[in-house]
Write a structure and sequence with these properties.
CATH architecture: Orthogonal Bundle
Order of helices and strands: HHHHHHHHHHHHH
CATH superfamily: MetI-like
Number of helices: 13
Largest sheet: none
Number of strands: 0
CATH topology: MetI-like fold
Helix content: over 70%
Oligomer: single chain
Radius of gyration: 27 Å
Strand content: under 5%
Structural class: mainly alpha
């Protein structure tokens, strides 16, 4: 165009580029691979499996520690027979009932705490009283009050989930900036609409953290509870599966049940909570 000139590279600029080298170059295959979190974590899993196989082979005592290969064989056999899947589904159904009940109660308590002063006092007092109490300690009461059925499972699972979710949600609500609070008040938001439109989006990282902690507490509490209730009622999920094969001295199948516990935990953590985090917190720029 008229009046404009395109700057041509001079000997000085060319010399500068040669001096400093290439500013940007494509990553090699190994650099891209090492930058993948999935590859790094998968490599760690493979390393653990190799160490397990070597040490168990050196120990040569399948009743104490079976080899990784024998555990995988037992895992495949119980999966193909459908027994391990059936026990897992039984546990997951109970877990969903207790988990959802705990979330609902936590939502009610935190809503009351966010809207009233007495509600905040109630939540602080109950959390301080019951949050440190292990759910397993309530098993005798659960057996007396609800018998050996599903009600006992739901009771201990609700206790595991309720206080973790309520505590993290309430902490997130308290951390919401006064500016956002004033914006909501200026728009005339009060009560439930104020919580949904202002507090929950701003406190969502804390809420998701509470849901993750509550899930972890509930899953391990369920397995432990099934070891007790399963022994008593001759039924149950993964906990009873592990205990039953322990009595048969079938250690590889016991480890197969433990592998399923780990597999379910990893699936929920990375596929469910990981996806929610990517779609919300990271996309909103709230990830720290």
């Amino acid at each position: 165009m008229t009046g404009q000139r395109i700057a041509q590279p001079t000997a000085e600029t060319v010399g500068t580029q040669e001096e400093f080298g290439v500013v940007e170059r494509p990553l090699t295959f190994w650099q891209r691979l090492s930058g993948s979190a999935l590859f790094r974590k998968g490599s760690l899993v493979i390393l653990i499996a190799i160490i397990w196989q070597v040490y168990a082979g050196h120990l040569n005592n399948p009743f104490v520690l079976p080899t990784f290969y024998d555990t995988v064989v037992s895992f495949s056999a119980t999966m193909m027979s459908g027994e391990l899947l059936a026990r897992t589904w039984f546990s997951i159904k109970i877990l969903l009932m207790g988990y959802s009940t705990g979330i609902i109660l936590a939502a009610l308590l935190t809503t009351l705490a966010a809207t009233t002063r007495i509600g905040n006092d109630i939540l602080e007092l109950l959390t301080a009283m019951f949050n440190p109490m292990p759910a397993i300690a309530l098993l005798p009461l659960a057996m007396i009050w609800f018998g050996l059925g599903v009600g006992s499972f739901i009771f201990v699972l609700t206790h595991s989930v309720l206080w973790a979710v309520a505590l993290n949600t309430n902490s997130g609500f308290r951390a919401v900036s006064p500016t956002l609070r004033m914006v909501g008040r200026n728009y005339g938001l009060t009560g439930f609409r104020y919580i949904v439109k202002i507090l929950i989006p701003a406190a969502f990282p804390s809420i998701l953290s509470g849901l993750r902690i509550g899930w972890a507490f509930a899953w391990r509490t369920l397995i432990a509870a099934e070891l007790v209730f399963g022994v008593s009622s001759q039924s149950g999920g993964l906990g009873w599966f592990i205990f039953e094969y322990k009595n048969m001295l079938n250690t590889p199948t016991v480890f197969a049940g433990l592998l399923m516990v780990i597999f379910v935990g990893l699936t929920i953590e990375y596929l469910l909570f990981g996806t929610i985090e990517k779609k919300t917190i990271k996309r909103w720029g709230m990830h720290t």
